[in-house]
Amino acid sequence: MQALITALIYLSLALPVLAQPADEAEREELRSFLEATISDADSFEDRYDAEVWLVDMSARLERFIEDPKHRLELLQDIHSAASRADLPPELVLSVIEVESHFDRFAISRVGAQGMMQVMPFWKDEIGRPDDNLTVNKTNFAYGCRILQFYLQRENGHLHRALARYNGSVGRRVYSDKVYRAWRDRWRTKPLNWKD
Predict the structure, then answer these.
(1) Could you report how far apart the first and last alpha carbons of the chain are, in Å?
(2) How far, in Å, CA of 85 to CA of 147, rounded?
(3) Cα(26)–Cα(90) distance, rounded to whole angstroms?
(4) Domain 2-186 belongs to what topology?
(5) What is the pLDDT of residues 66-86, one digit of tens each?
(6) Taking the model in full, what pTM does it have?
(7) Alpha helix ranges (H) inside the chain
């Protein structure tokens, strides 16, 4: 048993920490960005566009979430957070599928929480220690802003930004999974996945 505990501790120390920059200046820049951008807003400007998108995505989401009302509420929250962060909501859906399979109570082996697998230390970093990362709106606000930050930092390069989000810089295993989820399930219009 002690050997197993030691192995788990070693493994957790060896794993990259999700969305935690190694560079202290980058970490401070992301902390400031999160602090300034987490807020609420409505994302749909046109009712018809909202209905079309929600009906389409609800049918796609049914394999993960059975209850239609829950699906629509979830999709509205995802669309809202993605829109505030200038992200395609379909990209965010792809990230969520890979990160948690739409399980709001998911916790990774390194402690990341919620559907977008956000590290809890960010709450203290931005002075919001009472935020609950298993509350979808909160989780999406953090996750979308973190992804937005990395997309800006990587000049829109999706694979590199996703690798930073996942803490796997220099590798494409994670970003390729997100790409496949987007391509196979969430795509509505092209995204620039080129290297």
Answers:
(1) 45
(2) 8
(3) 27
(4) Lysozyme (1.10.530)
(5) 988 899 899 999 999 999 999
(6) 0.79
(7) 2-14, 24-37, 47-61, 68-84, 89-100, 121-125, 136-153, 158-166, 173-181
